[in-house]
Amino acid sequence: MLRGIPEIIGSDLLKALADTGHGDLIVIADHFYPPITKSPNAVSIQAKGVGAAQMVDAILKLVPLDVEYEKYPIQYMVPDADSGIVLESSPVWDGVKEAVVNNGYDVSCVGEIERTKFYEKAGRAYVTVCTSETKPYGCIILQKGVL
What we know:
Layout: H1 11-19, E1 25-29, H2 35-38, E2 43-47, H3 52-60, E3 74-78, H4 91-102, E4 110-114, H5 115-122, E5 127-131, E6 140-143
Parallel strand pairs: 1-5, 2-5, 3-4
Antiparallel strand pairs: 1-6, 3-6
Helix pairs in contact: 3-4
């Protein structure tokens, strides 16, 4: 038993997070994200029953963000500009920003990334955490920093 580990972080995820290093990418995926085709080389961890923002909050209790070298070390997926879909806000995005602030970071380190660019970047992820998030555009990428 370990102390201080959020209860939604299982042993497989804890091991995967421990194996990441500076600059590594962690995808927090919604229920619809296809981890095998979009992040084929990533360790895929199931975290069913958990929302995306809830998982971001738990991971940020253990993993530092790369605020030293990356303008937006945490990015949430938004529709492609040419998709015709316009979303001004999302409960997921609001929850991510709240988690960032609650874990000691400035909300300015959170950025948007269009869906197509998200998939390109997610292809370089070390770990994909598959949540049960069902709200649209509930996928997030974190870039790990150093302590």
